[in-house]
Amino acid sequence: MRRFYLIALLLIGSLLLVGFLTSQAHYAVTSHRQTAEAVLRDYADLASSEFVRRTLTEVGYYGYYPLTTAFRAWNRENPDAPVVPPADLPMEEERAPARELARHLFRFDGGDASLESSAPNLGAAVSQELVRRLGQSVAEAPNDGSYVSLFAEIDGEMRSFVYSMANPSEEPPRHLIGFEVDLSILGSWIERAVGRGPLLPPALADGELGNDSIFLEVTLGEDDTLFRMGEPYEPWFGVEQPFGDSYRGVLEEITVRLAIDPEVAPQLVIGGLPRSRLPLLLGVLGVVAGLILIAILQLRRERALIKLRSDFVSRVSHELRTPLTQIRMFAETLLLGRMRTPGDSRRALEIIDRESRRLSHLVENVLQFSRSEHDSVQLALEPRLLAPLLEELVDEFNPLLDSGEVSIVTRLDDNPRVTVDEDAMRQIVLNLLENAVKYGPPRQEVQLGASRANGRIQLWVDDEGPGIRTADRERIWEPFQRVAPDPGSALTGTGIGLSVVRDLVARHGGTTWVEDGRRGGARFVVELPIGGAEGAEAAG
Predict the structure, then answer these.
(1) 390, 525: one domain
(2) How far apart are CA 463 and CA 341, in angstroms?
(3) For residues 71 and 202, is the Cβ–Cβ distance under 8 A?
(4) How far is the C-alpha of 189 from the C-alpha of 209, rounded, in Å?
(5) Range scoring the smallest mean pLDDT among 103-107, 283-287, 300-304
(6) What is the DSSP code string of 243-287?
(7) Which of 498, 495, 435 is nearest to 467 (CA)?
(8) Are 441 and 333 in a shared domain?
């Protein structure tokens, strides 16, 4: 008992240790992954900042600045001339591409709040919004020649405008000039900024990591996409960053979403993104737990088996002691000449004979059970007529009865020949008869019969006992299993008789079962295959 609990405690301790190591391994992998994810997001933030810097330079320095500078110069020379379209604005050849960013040019007079545009049909809503916004901003316009950007949602559409002072030295400031940004063209300028080289530093991954490993999306407002490169990655390790008030907020309402492909993580992070080992670790933990459970069950089974064997030894010892005691007592009585009459002497000899037979039968059962356990049973099959064989076995069993109150009756439909091992059949029949007598009432008729059924030979023993519950009808054939008719029953026995019967029948190629008897008790049936019987008849 103490050994069982010690081993069980060690196994449970091993399971807890494996569980602890599993949790630590999972924690290490999780920490590594979280660190790697944070590094990827940091690199995405670095690339996003580089993109913002390039875009502001590309759009602001090469687009908005030369355009406003050229418009201011033209307006200074032609203050009273109508505002020309962007394509007619004089500009140096290398700066001329900036004209495509403007949908139209406009001039605003803060004195009378008048607006003049190169667009012939600017629209009342746009004009009113521009007059209102420019009127509020004219006094705050920068006088250093720089420009300011404003965004407005007009009729459900986001629009972008850029303006600056027409004359930075004007006091007080009254006139503003500017243009509306052509957002359909702005995307190509953003693409031009991306195309100037990798957004990540060349020192990373030996300069082999280009923009094809980056997802980039530039949006104006909530859902107006100006530029998109690639498809969003899963899982997402990216950043979302507004342009903010850089360059006086020229791209303030524009937002950047950028992420790095998780597949290139090994080039940026040592070890890359470790995959979750949780399923594998849980699987290992489950296997270990299962093995430990099996080990504990095996220990319990071993413990139960040891107890069964101990009980078996105790039962066999008891069963052996009873006939030995009887044999010794009556033998000593005879040797001392204490029998008063010849009848008493004969009775003593009959008891000695009966107990000797019982002792022999018990020893044979134990030896047969041992041979079965070691699979060393050897059968000597030979043809025999069934009826005389059963009659011999009944005559051999009758002396084992303690009294004449139990009668054994044979009921044979015919007398077939069977191919059997005679010693094995003796043990089969004697065990079945002994079982019927032991569990039946003191005064009963035990019937032993044989008949043909479906081409097979059935041998059966029918008693008048309490019967056997359906739930126990398979269990009783197992070694050491005994089913008492009531909990307080004091029946003796080794618990191996029926297991010996089933084993010997199976070695003959037959089957055994128990069913309800014809007279209320139990009927034990042994069925032998037809092949053996026909072979015996052919041999005869």
Answers:
(1) yes
(2) 38
(3) no
(4) 23
(5) 300-304
(6) -TTHHHHTTTTEEEEEEE-GGGHHHHSTT-SPPP-HHHHHHHHHH
(7) 435
(8) no
CB atoms < 10 A from the CB of 294, how many? 10
Let me know: does 158 contact 224? Beta carbons within 8 Å: yes
Write the Ramachandran bin of 480: left for phi over 0, alpha for psi from -120 to 50, otherwise beta.
left
| Residue at 480 is within a domain | yes
Q: Which tokens hold the place of 127?
A: 């004009």
Q: What is the CATH number of the domain that holds 338?
A: 1.10.287.130
Based on the fold, state whether residues 328 and 402 are members of the same structural domain: no
Between CA 94 and CA 102, with CA 99 as vertex, the angle to 5 degrees is: 155
Q: Are β-strands 214-220 and 382-385 bridged in parallel, bridged antiparallel, or unpaired? A: unpaired
487 pLDDT more than 60: no
Q: Which domain holds residue 331?
A: 291-375
Do 361 and 389 lie in one domain? The reply is no
How do residues 92-142 score in pLDDT, each as one tens digit? Answer: 999 999 999 999 999 999 888 899 999 988 889 999 999 998 888 887 777
Residue showing tokens 């069977």: 418
β-bridge mates for residue 306, sequence order = none
Q: 304 with 423, same domain?
A: no
Query: Which of 46, 69, 19 has the alpha carbon at shortest distance from 237?
Result: 46
Is the CB of residue 105 less than 8 Å from the CB of residue 177? Answer: yes
Which residues, 6 or more positions from 193, have their beta carbon under 8 angstroms from its beta carbon? 51, 54, 55, 57, 58, 59
Q: Same structural domain for residues 491 and 528?
A: yes
* Number of domains the chain contains: 2
395/491 same-domain check: yes
How many other CB atoms are found less than 10 A from the CB of residue 93?
6
363 plus 326 within the same structural domain: yes
DSSP conformational letter for 528? E
Say what the pLDDT of residue 540 is: 34
Residue 535 is predicted with a pLDDT of 39
Instruction: Return the number of other C-beta atoms located less than 10 Å from residue 332's C-beta.
Output: 10
Pick from 194-208, 229-243, 521-535: least confident: 521-535
Domain termination site, one of 324, 355, 375:
375
User: The CATH number of the domain where 436 resides is what?
Assistant: 3.30.565.10
Examine residue 151 and state whether it is found in any structural domain, yes or no. Answer: no
Displacement of CA 34 from its chain's centroid (Å): 25
In a domain, 229, yes or no: no
Q: Quick one: residue 36, left, alpha or beta (phi over 0 = left, psi -120 to 50 = alpha)?
A: alpha
Q: Of the candidates 320, 341, 375, which is a domain's last residue?
A: 375
What is the 8-class DSSP label of residue 59? I
**Is the preceding omega at residue 235 within 30 degrees of 0, hence cis?**
yes
